[in-house]
Amino acid sequence: MLTEINFDGIIGPSHNYAGLSLGNIASASNAGAVSEPRAAALQGVAKMRANIALGLAQGFFLPLDRPNTGWLASLGCDIASAEPHIRAAAFSASSMWAANAATVSPAPDTADGRCHLTVANLVTMPHRSHEWTGTLAQLQLAFADTRHFAVHGPVPAPFGDEGAANHMRLCDGHDGAGVEIFVYGKAGGPFPARQHIEAGKAIARRHGLAPDATLFLQQSETAIAAGAFHNDVVAVANETVLFTHEQAFENRTEAYAEIRAAFPAVQIVEVPASAVSLADAIKSYLFNAQLVSLPEGGHALVLPSESQEVTAVWQWLEAMVAGNGPIRQLVPVNVRQSMANGGGPACLRLRVVADPATVDPRFMATADRLDTVERIIASHWPERIAPADLADPALAETVRAARAALIDALDLGELG
After folding, report:
1. Strand pairing partners for 209?
2. Beta bridge partners of residue 299, listed in sequence order
3. Contact indicator for 260, 252 with CB cutoff of 8 Å
4. Which of 61, 91, 92, 288 is an S-S bond match for 346, by CB 3.0 to 4.6 Å?
5. What's the rounded mean pLDDT across residues 366-370?
6. Please, how many CA atoms are within 13 Å of residue 406, restricted to the half-sphere of its CB?
7. Whole-model pTM?
8. How far is it, in rounded angstroms, from Cα 403 to Cα 416?
9. Which one of the listed residues 36, 180, 347, 380 is annotated catalytic?
10. What mean pLDDT do residues 380-407 have?
11. Does residue 347 carry a catalytic annotation?
């Protein structure tokens, strides 16, 4: 039976605060701070457990091989000789944000009746541009059953593609045909617009999507300039519900009209700027939440605990769930280590609509598998990483050994 599976990125042992992501305010603000990879990864596992407790299907992806010495070699250097910003890019654990792993079109939407996944190229940011090869290897392994899945390589440069963080789907139910929305950027003041319209068009063609069930909407330039580097920082959709900030889309009235024309059943829950400013929405990552369908019916928001700390945000949310709207439950989670690097609950997961029985079971989260993951994290992940530590050869050895231990424990030697 088709159901939505959330695949979370296990936060890697090289998690550090290098401030590499231009336009990501949290990342820039915490540049140079001391990170806590062990705590970060355990927070991520706890979030997965919380989703399972809600009755949701849950999977995971593994950290990529870091530091990426092959990438460094292609630049003519190694860990010792690399400039600090290049060394930090080689150590980056940003693949933890699985929402940027790929764009996914479920089988009911595609011409050949298979679930299609296109790995994101992430070409806009150097530290992420070398992720796709490792991510593609995991996608090809997890979704190897070609009767049910088609896994595609990246859209070629220069068309920037940042994956599902700029993609939404509306449907009456996950197992039925839906409308897919590709959100792209044009400009964002001092910050780059990372998602190119041509990338979205290419993915829609590859996936065999029906033109009348495919929309291309421009992200608000104001939102990008304010620090909404991905659409999922200002809007999220699930089944019939679009939860969005008033300033999420350029030409908002036209965008809503296009959505309603393509999917008349849509319920647009808009947070007005007069109640929650764009700055507060981005600070709290209100929209970087998992909007999920509960088994007993209705929708829940799995959102960062920081949302409780911004008065305007939490007051608006409490009023919303007290009303008669489609979102009935708030589930705050602690992912502070990820948040400090600019990624909330939605960043950490890739949504895949599929029959769990068709997925390689080694990537599906069970209580026992998560116990194993926690055990490896607790015994192998570094407790802290300071910026200067990235130059220490011992850290590279520790990070590689930690990942190897996890691969071995989960019997995923193909990823070694």
Report:
1. 110
2. 293, 327
3. no
4. 288
5. 97
6. 28
7. 0.96
8. 9
9. 347
10. 97
11. yes
